[in-house]
Amino acid sequence: MSEARQPARRPRDDRRPRDDRRPRDERGRGRGRPPADPARRAAYDAVAAVHRDDAYANLVLPKMLRERGLRGRDAAFATELTYGTLRLTGTLDAIIAAAADRDMARIDPPVRDALRLGAYQLLRTRVAPHGAASTTVDLVRAVAPGAVGFANAVLRRVGEQDWDSWIDRLAPADGTDPVRRLALEHAHPAWIVRAIGDALRADVDETARALAADNEAPPVQLTARPGLVTAAELAEQVGGEVGRYSPYAVYLPGGAPGDIPAIRQGRAHVQDEGSQLVATALANAPVDGRDERWLDLCAGPGGKAGLLGAIAAQRGARLTAVEVTPHRAELVENATRNLPVTVVTADGRDVGAIEELPEQGFDRVLVDAPCTGLGALRRRPESRWRRQPTDLPPLTGLQRELLGAAIRAVRPGGVVAYVTCSPHLVETDVGVTEACRRSEHPVDLLDARALLPGDVPDLGGGPSVQLWPHRHGTDAMFLAVLRRGE
Question: What is the DSSP string of 15-42?
Answer without folding.
Answer: S--TT----GGGTT--TTS--S-HHHHH
